[in-house]
TrEMBL record:
Subcellular location: Membrane
InterPro entries per UniProt: Acyl-CoA_DS (IPR015876), FA_desaturase_dom (IPR005804)
Protein's recorded name: Fatty acid desaturase domain-containing protein
Cofactor(s) listed in the protein's UniProt record: Fe(2+)
Pathway: Lipid metabolism
Transmembrane segments: 108-129, 135-155, 253-275
Organism: Acacia crassicarpa (northern wattle)
Lineage: Eukaryota, Viridiplantae, Streptophyta, Embryophyta, Tracheophyta
Record family assignment: Belongs to the fatty acid desaturase type 1 family.
GO terms for MF: oxidoreductase activity, acting on paired donors, with oxidation of a pair of donors resulting in the reduction of molecular oxygen to two molecules of water
Amino acid sequence: MALITSQPKNPILHNSTTVHRSIPRLTNSLFFANNARTLKVSNFNSNSNKFSLGTNPFRTVPIISANVALTEALEPEEEGNVKYRRILLSDVEVKRERRVFFGRKWNSMDLGTAGVVLAMHVLSLFAPLCFNWRAFWVAMALYFVTGLFGITLSFHRNLSHRSFRLPKWLEYFFAYCGVLALQGNPIDWVSTHRYHHQFCDSERDPHSPTEGFWFSHMSWLFDTKSVVERCGEPDNVGDLEKQSFYRFLRSTYILHPLALGGLLYAMGGFPFLVWGMGVRVVWVYHITWFVNSACHVWGKQAWNTKDLSRNNWWVAVLAFGEGWHNNHHAFEYSARHGLEWWQLDMTWNVVRFLQLIGLATDVKLPSQAHKLRMAFHN
């Protein structure tokens, strides 16, 4: 959901979770084509660092979806005079099929993002030809450093949702780990993710599967124009904009992954570069993207969030607990996503450890009263 290339001081076009890309705000009108139901919208206040919860009605907009990808279901659903198609093995309907790769003009930002993503995938194809155990374990170590410490703990739970506080030196260290994941700088990543929660599964959501599974998974990253049209100028990351460290990472972002690639090559040659950059980056890419796509398509809903978020166990295993996505959408502020004892959440285990040794403070967890309000029987 993020921009791959370096950003200007106040970027308008770009992400991540992506990868991530910050998305600008354009209009205050919201629409969602699903029986005019009411969705929960969370608004992030960057000045207070708190979330306020509210409800917004969405009127039905009849839109005929275009041809869906081969991975999506073939049987259409009729709703009035409009035919919708369901995503394979899911009850989620594609309302507004989005064409990204053909029939539109690509700008330089789209080409830059797509070029880096493609380059990482091509580099990873050399993995079987240059396998060795040292390179493999380097990739595994960086998977934990950049994926767990960088993306799930820092970019997501600490910076996007302020689920806990860390000493600044440790907060900045974890954020730097996230930069090495090649998913964009923290300001852009966080901006996109906050907009996702604010406009979840509406027409202003940057990556909803109601516009197609592959759109929510990755292709939305390459359509800068559609993102700009949804939300307009980013105004939800004032807390990060005030800190010179995050502004520095935004202006120098692309240099840091390049430096890591050079270091890996110096340490172990081409095998280290292939496994430590290509394989590891692509692996973390798709795990991050599955939270956006699979966790809004397949799984179960434990809480009445009035959106498409699902708890998905296999994404939770791969993404260090991020797959308990319905739990997360119900209690966005919570540092713990795996709320049941059997719900594996490695990110929470790290946060809990940091709390026990006094490094993580103000750790937020859902109250029993909030759980009762979010339960389906209520």
